[in-house]
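Posting this for the archive.
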Amino acid sequence: MTRVLVVDDEPQLLRALRINLRARDYEVEVAADGTTALRRAGSWHPDLVVLDLGLPDLEGIEVIHGLRGWTEVPIVVLSGRAGSHDKVEALEAGADDYVTKPFDIEELVARIRAVSRRTSPSEPVAPVRVGERTIDLAAKTVSGGVHLTPTEWRLLEVLLRNPGKLVAQQQLLATVWGPAYKSETHYLRQYMAQLRRKLESDPSHPRHLLTEPGMGYRYQP
């Protein structure tokens, strides 16, 4: 049974989500503030976190950072903040998806299932070389002390698991950010540029992280 920690300061919403998720065979714990959420995450070890950004004691972004300091548990943000800045900030901090209030419970459950599938363990990949860097997906390390953000890791992993294959823009966006972001191609341009700066020997003339204009991206071993 999947264990879901729901974090929100609205008692009625917490109750509704607890009832609806339990009816779908999820095991549910709730927290009304960020401090309680971090404590329960540490003691209960949920399989997924549903997190509001507007909490009474901590900003939801702080909770994401607190979780990402020690766990890769999937995080679905559930927030009334609909601005693109809030979405980008949450995803960059390490959230896996972003659902805007008011929401449909069936959509939320679908997002939870999709995120769970995307973040489930996959077959291990041997360490690979990109330029002068050695990348170990299992250990989440890059030689030379290079640091990648959670979003950069997810994007890079999709490409490295498909060596030599063209991965379509829409597939990358749906896999890394979620189905709602299939048209946000500027995300890909931004993050691919960041990965090239960190990994390619000559970022302006990449040899491994390639763009196929208008179609997608490819990892060329």
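The longest strand covers residues 3-7. The radius of gyration is 18 Å.
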